[in-house]
Predict the 3D structure of the following.
Amino acid sequence: MSSVKGFHFNTICEISAQADESLLEEALSLCPVFERLMSRFIEGSDVWNLNHAEGLPVQVSEHTLEVLKCADALSSASEGAFNIAIGAASKLWRFTDAEPVIPTSEQLEKAIFELRNFSIRFKDAGVIIPAGATIDLGGVAKGYACDRVADQLRERGVTNGILNFGGNVVTIGTHPEGRPWKVGLQTPNAKRNESTFAAVESVDSAVVTSGIYERCFTRNGTIYHHILDPRTGRPASTDIVSATVLSSDSMLADALATAILVLGSSLGLQLAKDYGVQTALLTTNNQLTYSAAMPLTLTE
Ligand code: ADP
Ligand code: MG
């Protein structure tokens, strides 16, 4: 097995597979390509262009288009719990900065207004969003990238591999020993990769987890995390601590995991069912709820 890793999408992206390291490096080099298309921070990216278009149509790459269409469909299906116009709020909190900020109620009111009035149109002339809207694809782009990187490896003949882009896992084939890959589900607040409470079996599919213990900060005893409720502009506060989605499509799994965290367990389980994917939800009272068909085993 060879392994390579790099820092992309604000997280560690790692590939391990039975292949030459150079092949893995080549596949990993797709990450900055997608980042340059979909980061809202990189001047000239598709997302940056949309956010600065003042309501005019923007021609975007086929990759960005696919992500925007998936996000738009999920936004409707989740009744707005997933909303890529969340940039209106996330740019205020600045979770990726060394010193995140708690926005004022007035700032959040303005953001909620923008979120409520957001719409996206796909025209021949390009993609149109309202002037002043701020798209943030942080909840879905990494999942798309992970799928495309895995596709490239498959095309190059890789038959056994595992990719982990900061909690967004895609497996290629089986483990070299012929058994399914086992993807550990992290115990909240434990050091990354140090403790897992369950493992999900995966063959050629994606296992994606969103957790409120990721990318968060504490101020005066309150924990603020980066998955925001579009109705309030504040960190989503539901009965879920972490949501894991198993699907053949990693982009969908990524977006769904984020949406389920915003919706809470009962609406979240329904949404997963509607999309025909398996989920495992860890709730605030430390209960684990999962779909009957989820290939999960407890490790504690
Ligand atoms: P992680 O990046 O830890 O894997 P997620 O996939 O859940 O976690 O993505 C969280 C990111 O999604 C946030 O940093 C932000 O960019 C974006 N986001 C936050 N809340 C929402 C929301 N309600 N709808 C869509 N995107 C969101
Ligand atoms: Mg996500």
Q: What stands out?
A: The first helix runs from residue 21 to 28. The CA atoms of residues 214 and 225 lie 7 Å apart.
